[in-house]
């Protein structure tokens, strides 16, 4: 008789990089209300995994200098083992999610979290997070700022860059 597969909880940590400033200033600057500038990460197998300009990184949950998340979304459970998950992350880090592929609007931490959430649970992360870049770029101010914003590289300090050879470095 086969042993049932263990279920591992999967969470999405959501951080507001603006620390509330987007909520206050976006109506004046963009002409529309934004509740935050979102950075997300995936929590699974007792670690926090995220993507930035240095590639895929990991740390203990809440272990970046961003501190505790502003909110936590329960994405469900996964049967994916830690070993398979780490192999998957290694392949992502060598292909789609290399550090040099990072782009603030089109290929960022939220793109990574969405991809990993779907792999682990079959569920996407909330659309208010993934739709934010398009919302900003749909405004005249967003279009004017795009050249500057395209040059920004975000890497939350405090994580360890993920590497295939030793799991986490």
Helical amount among residues, as a percent range?
A: 25-40%
Specify the oligomeric state: single chain
Main sheet overview: 7 strands, antiparallel
**Rg:** 17 Å
Distance between the first and last residues' Cα? 38 Å
DSSP helical segment count: 6
β-strand percent reads: 15-25%
Query: Using DSSP, what is the number of strands?
Result: 7
The H/E string reads EHEEEEHHHHHEE
Overall spatial form: globular
Indicate the mean pLDDT.
89
Secondary-structure-based class equals alpha+beta
Walkthrough of the structure:
The chain is of the alpha+beta class. 34% of the residues lie in helices and 24% in strands. It is built from 6 helices and 7 strands; from the N terminus they run E-H-E-E-E-E-H-H-H-H-H-E-E. Strands 5-1-2-3-4-6-7 form a 7-stranded antiparallel beta sheet, with helices on one face. A hairpin with a 3-residue loop joins strand 6 (160-163) and strand 7 (167-168). The protein is globular. The protein starts with 7 loop residues before the first strand and ends with a strand.
């Amino acid at each position: 008789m086969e042993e049932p597969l263990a279920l591992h909880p999967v969470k999405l940590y959501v951080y507001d990089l603006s620390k509330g400033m987007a909520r206050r200033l976006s109506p004046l600057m963009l002409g529309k209300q934004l509740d935050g500038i979102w950075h997300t990460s995936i929590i699974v197998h007792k670690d926090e995994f995220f993507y930035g300009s240095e590639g895929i990184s990991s740390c203990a949950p809440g272990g970046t200098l961003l501190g505790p998340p502003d909110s936590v979304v329960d994405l469900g459970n996964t049967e994916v083992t830690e070993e398979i998950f780490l192999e998957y992350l290694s392949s992502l880090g060598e292909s789609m999610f290399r550090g040099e592929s990072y782009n603030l609007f089109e290929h960022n931490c939220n793109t990574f979290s969405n991809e990993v959430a779907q792999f682990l649970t079959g569920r996407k992360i909330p659309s208010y997070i993934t739709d934010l870049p398009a919302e900003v770029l749909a405004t005249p101010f967003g279009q004017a700022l795009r050249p500057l914003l395209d040059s920004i590289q975000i890497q939350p300090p405090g994580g360890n860059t993920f590497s295939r050879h030793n799991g986490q470095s």
